């Protein structure tokens, strides 16, 4: 086996094993312990984070941030990967902000010169526009970790309708829309799923009260109920074709749409009672493109909001 091939396979092996002894690797690769030690030294110099422990029960282990083995990309795949990460630069906050910047830098610097020239020319010809929001969402990494590992968080949240409040939540998933980050989570105080905006979280920490996490693994970003039946209202509305197109741009609303052959559609879903003002503002913005049928509470909220606006400009 060529040395270069052995180093690649050795990198993949130590990432898989995480903890190992030199003799184990020497036996597996059919080389001497001295050769394996030299190879491990080279891998360490290449950035593989190895840690050694001395003593009868010692050995080597790979610390948490492992280095993945080399992956061969075609030029088209490399360009696509670059712009996929490059598009995230418009967001003020990311769940993996430092890592994405580091990955993009490595990706770009190790490309052939002509590929870099091609990317540089494309930067001025294509972009993925996202509204630049001033307020940051500093707790995105914690929210994502809690969603993946089903952990409960204690947060201080400030909503437009209810003001500041302390909540215990279990995040389910994150999504970005129109420049903002949103977290769908189970709220233990409201006993149902709620949507929280990342930039409105004033503080967040892992819960220490002993609240038992729920099994929410069956809920995904493409299938979830917005609220528990006891605290929800039945929403039903008819949309023109233009109304459907505007609603399709809203990730939180798209799963509720039913689109007909002519492009028009309907919304039939549950909505949280506590979000009346938000829905009122949204449907007012749709203007003539929507005909709201129910609930009566939302109709009244719309009338009240329109009266307030009329009074302001009269």
Structural account:
This protein has 314 residues and is α+β, with helices and mostly antiparallel strands. Helix content is 38%, strand content 24%. It contains ten helices and twelve strands. The chain has helices spanning 3-17, 22-29, 33-45, 75-86, 97-109, 113-123, 140-149, 241-248, 276-286, 296-313; strands at residues 19-20, 50-53, 59-62, 153-159, 163-177, 180-187, 192-197, 201-206, 232-239, 257-259, 265-272, 290-294. A hairpin with a 2-residue loop joins strand 5 (163-177) and strand 6 (180-187). The chain starts with a helix and ends with a helix. Mean pLDDT is 82; it is low at 224-230.
Write the layout of secondary structure elements.
Layout: H1 3-17, E1 19-20, H2 22-29, H3 33-45, E2 50-53, E3 59-62, H4 75-86, H5 97-109, H6 113-123, H7 140-149, E4 153-159, E5 163-177, E6 180-187, E7 192-197, E8 201-206, E9 232-239, H8 241-248, E10 257-259, E11 265-272, H9 276-286, E12 290-294, H10 296-313
Antiparallel strand pairs: 1-3, 2-3, 4-5, 4-8, 5-6, 6-7, 9-11, 9-12, 10-11
Helix pairs in contact: 2-3, 4-5, 9-10
């Amino acid at each position: 086996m060529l040395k270069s091939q052995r180093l690649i396979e050795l990198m993949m092996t130590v990432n898989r094993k995480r903890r190992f002894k030199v003799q184990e690797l020497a036996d597996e690769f059919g080389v001497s312990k001295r050769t394996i030690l030299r190879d491990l030294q080279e891998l360490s110099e290449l950035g593989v984070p190895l840690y050694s422990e001395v003593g009868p029960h010692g050995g080597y282990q790979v610390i948490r941030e492992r280095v993945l083995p080399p992956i061969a990309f075609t030029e088209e795949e490399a360009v696509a990967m670059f712009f996929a990460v490059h598009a995230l630069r418009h967001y003020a906050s990311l769940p993996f902000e430092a890592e994405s910047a580091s990955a993009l830098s490595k990706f770009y610097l190790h490309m052939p010169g002509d590929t870099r020239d091609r990317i540089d020319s494309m930067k001025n010809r294509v972009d993925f526009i996202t509204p630049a929001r001033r307020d940051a969402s500093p707790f995105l990494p914690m929210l994502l970790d809690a969603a993946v590992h089903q952990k409960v968080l204690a947060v201080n949240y400030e909503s437009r309708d209810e003001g500041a409040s302390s909540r215990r939540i279990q995040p389910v998933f994150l999504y970005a829309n129109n420049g903002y980050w949103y977290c769908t989570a189970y709220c233990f105080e409201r006993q149902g799923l709620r949507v929280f905006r990342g930039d409105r979280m004033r503080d967040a920490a892992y819960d220490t009260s002993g609240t038992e996490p729920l099994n929410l693994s069956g809920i995904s970003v493409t299938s979830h109920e917005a609220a528990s039946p006891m605290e929800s209202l039945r929403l039903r509305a008819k949309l023109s074709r233009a109304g459907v197109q505007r609603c399709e741009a809203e990730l939180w609303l798209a799963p509720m749409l039913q689109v007909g052959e002519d492009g028009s559609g309907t919304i039939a879903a549950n909505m949280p009672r506590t979000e009346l003002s938000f829905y009122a503002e949204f449907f007012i913005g749709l203007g003539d493109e929507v005909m709201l049928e129910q609930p009566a509470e939302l109709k009244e909220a719309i009338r009240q909001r329109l009266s307030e606006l009329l009074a302001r400009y009269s």
